[in-house]
Amino acid sequence: MNPEFSTSTTAQVLRSLPKRYAKERRFRLLGLCAIVLTMLFLMVLLGTIFLKGWTAFQQTHIRLDVYFDPVRLDVKNLANANYGALVRDSMQRMFPDVEGRSNRLQLNRLISSGAAFTLQDMVTSSPEIIGTTRSLWLPADDEVDMLIKGHTPRDVPETIRRLSDQQLVWIDTLVEDGRLEKQFNGAFFRNGDSREPELAGVRGAITGSFYTLMVTLMLSFPIGVAAAVYLEEFAPKNIFTDLIEVNINNLAAIPSIIFGLLGLAVFLNFFGLPRSSSIVGGLVLTLMTLPTIIIASRASLKAVPPSIREAALGIGASKMQMILHHVLPLALPGMLTGTIIGMAQALGETAPLLMIGMVAFIVDVPQSLQDPATVLPVQIYLWADSPERAFIERTSAAIMVLLAALLIMNATAVYLRNRFERRW
Amino acid sequence: MSTLETTASLQKGFAVPRENIGSRVQKKSRKIDRENRETVGLQFVDDPRMTCRAVNVFYGEKHAIKNVSIDIGKNEVLAMIGPSGCGKSTFLRCLNRMNDTIVGCRVTGEIRLDDLDIYEKNIDVVPLRAQVGMVFQKPNPFPKSIYDNVAYGPKIHGLAHSRSELADIVEDSLRRAGLWNEVNDRLDQPGTGLSGGQQQRLCIARAIAVRPEIILMDEPCSALDPIATATVEDLISELRQHYTIVIVTHNMQQAARVSQRTAYFHLGDLVEVGHTSRIFTNPAHQLTEDYITGRFG
Ligand SMILES: Nc1ncnc2c1ncn2[C@@H]1O[C@H](COP(=O)(O)OP(=O)(O)OP(=O)(O)O)[C@@H](O)[C@H]1O
Ligand SMILES: [Mg+2]
User: Fold this and answer.
1) Whether B40 contacts B269, CB under 8 Å
2) ipTM score of complex
3) pLDDT tens profile A296-309
């Protein structure tokens, strides 16, 4: 080769190098900025949620010495006994010098109205405790809780405070006696929704979300994969299938509330399925996730190299054998990823569920698919709407539970993908 | 016989440089003009295994194979040569209907296997492809273990009645493809982890494990070293005792060594067919001569 030519090329290359590297550096810097910005937003978001919500995992409790008074507890009629009176008696014994009806009322307001239910449960499960005295930690009222956590101020005039001066004195006494402290808020994970913040929990919503997602998964994964395999591998390519394809892509972009309206019209009004139930919620979310799953599954089927198909066909595999033995195993990781993305979407969906009545105030944890239920995002929506200060932290705590569920699902997706992924 | 002698001398002297073959060729008489695309030579044989008549292949609008008629004889190795893109692979893929898988590919004409028209409407391609095996131009092992790659065909066709029988088939196929010694201690590792040449031999083993009666090989030695090439060529000679083989190759010495007849394709036309010895010593067509003497283009 001509040496003159090659040296001039080298010179040219060297001359253009700084410019090329500068370009690369700029590009890298831009990418870095984008990442930093996203991380910043994410940190702010997660940070505020965590700071607001972590206190909800603790709840102020008051230690009461409860005397299970045989006079008040008729063994033959335990269900109708006045358990509230037991609580009130115990409070009274702690502060014997409180006189007058209104003062006693104020005193009793310090303890949660749910304390009576705890006592009832104890007595029903083991009646032999009647006649004994037990020292119990019972949840304090949410106003006390807020005060202890410092969410409501105490150095303001009594008129704009939710707790009276007298109540503050009692609280201080309880704290001094070691009878009032913050403990892990198990009720938050044990209970369903409640009007009383200190009794409200996410168990009902978690169960509802679980049932709803199970219905969605059981229906949308097989249907979606079957539809994708048929469209991709068997369907003739004609106007009709093109039309179907366009429609599926459009469905994926339809606002989810429309699916809710459809569910209302079809599942509730036409088929008469139970309102507010997880099964209807699951059906509606199935409609919503199907397009996502079908599109993701088709993409991963398309990504299977044609040479693998040819190899299978070339040694005389039938089409079904080719698909089952070679194409599906290779496409499965992609399909699973798509499905879990769809499920994560479904887990966070609120609007369509409002249309089918899953927004109702439901105290009981659902026991079956037909029971009225609510789901986590709807629970968040309901709590965010509540006026009590204590629901603010519970809203954030419920968001944290939802995020944790999403995190688990996405981790599963990554695990499954790595597990099934094969290289070629 | 003189033909045999020439073949033998060609076989011995595959290291003979191209110009030598060329100079031997040039001594012969006048050639058929370059513009003439009628097939010349020995298209048809007495006892054909496959017969192709007036075959045309279209990829959409593109006319890739133009009116090709040729027989493939029993126990014969037919070599197909020609410049890149002339349609060798396309024609080969017609013979077991692999072109069905390509969207927009259309085949007309008649291709018969024994007396069966393989392009007839209600033909089942599954037994056809079991009978007419194929080794593809690009090695395409399954992303499964080496063992499963070879065992897959016998398994789906039910050729083995026990585990040990299946293992025997796998070992035998790998041995014949010249791969056994390299992989016998790692049969459970993925076939995709082999080198390019090993993958090619794996694909050969996979194809012969089904015991097809006709084997279509599309450049089976393109990535092989001379030793592995020799193994594959031995395999071809051995298989010829019972089977029929069509092989596409860019290596003319290889065509000369393994085949009985050679077909030369040019831009979709089958230009010339004949005994291998004659094609390489005295081609009738100017295009064939240009190609084998390296003057094409
Ligand atoms: N799937 C396809 N779609 C459209 N055209 C194709 C397709 N496959 C091959 N062709 C065209 O058909 C012609 C013949 O291709 P083919 O692969 O048969 O060539 P070949 O002789 O095997 O070449 P090579 O020696 O490079 O493998 C080429 O011009 C190519 O562009
Ligand atoms: Mg080719």
Assistant:
1) no
2) 0.84
3) 999 999 999 999 99
